[in-house]
Amino acid sequence: MTTPDSIIGHGIYRILVCRPNHRLGNTLLLTPLIAELQALYRGAEIDIVSEGDIAHDVFKGFFSVRQVFCLPRRGFKHPLAFLRMILRIRRTHYDLIVDPSVRSGFARTLTRIFRGRYKLGFSDAPTKALTHAAPRAVAGRHMAKRPVNLVRWASGADLSAFRSYPTLAIHLSEDERSEGREALAALTTSRHGAQPTFRIGIFGNATGAKRYSTEWWADFMATLCAAHPMASVLEIIPAHGHSMLREAWPGYYSSDIRRMAAVLGGLDLFITADCGVMHLGVAAGVPTIGLFHVTASDVYTPYGGHNAGLDTGTCSGRDTARHVLGMIEISLGHGRAASDPVVTERATNRLAASPNPDSAKKQIDKVRHP
Fold it and tell me: I need a surface site. Which of 1, 107, 202, 254 has the fewest CB within 10 A?
């Protein structure tokens, strides 16, 4: 593995992370980088360049983050506000500027404009914009792990020696978590009025082709609920304010992502298509299963803990639910150890009946051995 000509080590106290993007998912995928920088440069202060206002909420709980500069969305339509923000950022001379994107020309341009002793990013060709250019091969596949690999490379670390990465995090306060549990308790009871065995959250929306149809979700939910009649289901309502599950279950809606994360954090399991809210579930700490059928799961899949992704391909909702049920029984086991032979046998039987048992088995192995 290529190593940098000079190691970025001592004397790093002012750091700027340049990731101008307004999407919730991309912003949350940056949180492992912030955690890694906090671990590598314990006495440093971190500023972040983002876009839109959502980054303020995402990075609110990070101790080392000082300022989050949120550029106006579509800055060319607000040139004065955009230029004022750029000039404000340029007032500080940073010890390290990190451009974590592999291909963003806008982030690279800003990195070149801002003032810094060291400028770190990915590039296979020589560039004056960076003092330390990591080969793109260093990045790897997963979007959240790429920037972590970048700063590890710049510190001279042997990347092959690492077996773990910081997980996505939003750092909810205990007060936020308590309020989330209260809201969840008011919304969730089992369909038979008893205490639910566990609480399952479902988010049925996604962008464009990533979205599964209402009919697909109805098929999925019928299979899931038949297997777990005592479970309590909560639908997380999308930003447009309409149920994707035909109003069949209680719903929770919030335009505040920290309140939504607090409610998600009280669930026992969260199932969702690939989207920003999937990453929010991971960051909130709830075991999350992400469903993929058009995007590359190895780039965006939930990782760490009992999180997992599942490639559904052209599977029906019913068949996908059977995959998921096997994963649930291994990861949650109704409170029993994942090595429990009864649990393992039930999960194996479900897998044997699934249309693609080998694929599902790989996902369950990831859940069992996170």
Answer: 1
How far apart are alpha carbons 101 and 143 in whole angstroms? 9
Cα Rg of the chain, angstroms: 22
**Residue for token pair 């809201």:** 183
* DSSP state string for 126-157: --TT-SEEE-GGGT-S-TTTHHHHHHHHHTT-
What letters, b where the CB count within 10 A reaches 16 and e where it falls short, cover 86-120? beebeeeebbbbbbbbbebeebbebbbebebebbb
| CA separation for the pair 300, 293 (Å, rounded) | 12
Mind listing the domains of the chain with CATH numbers?
14-161 (3.40.50.2000), 174-368 (3.40.50.2000)
User: By C-alpha distance, which of 127, 108, 131, 143 is closest to 27?
Assistant: 143
Structural tokens at position 295: 């995007």
Contact by Cβ (8 Å): 59, 68: yes
Return the SS3 of 289.
strand
Q: Nearest Cα to 269, choosing from 214, 333, 213, 226?
A: 333
Instruction: Provide the token pair at 24.
Output: 């919730």
Query: From CA 263, how far away is CA 234, in angstroms rounded?
Result: 10
**Mean pLDDT in consecutive groups of 10 residues from the start of the chain, 370 residues:** 77 97 97 97 97 95 96 79 94 98 94 97 94 96 97 90 92 97 85 70 96 96 91 95 96 97 97 98 97 95 94 95 87 44 42 46 46
- CA atoms of 186 and 192, how far apart (whole Å): 16
Which residues, at least 6 apart from 169, have a Cβ–Cβ distance to it below 8 Å? 31, 32, 35, 61, 283
Q: What are phi and psi of 273, to 5 degrees?
A: -75, 165
What is the model's pTM? 0.88
The three state secondary structure string of 195-213 is CCCCEEEEECCCCHHHCCC
- Name the residue type at position 331: S
What per-residue string of b and e applies to 341-363 under the rule 16 or more CB within 10 Å gives b?
Answer: eebbebbbebbeebeebebbbeb
- Name the phi and psi angles at 270, rounded to 5: -130, 125
pLDDT of residue 3: 74
* DSSP for residue 29: T
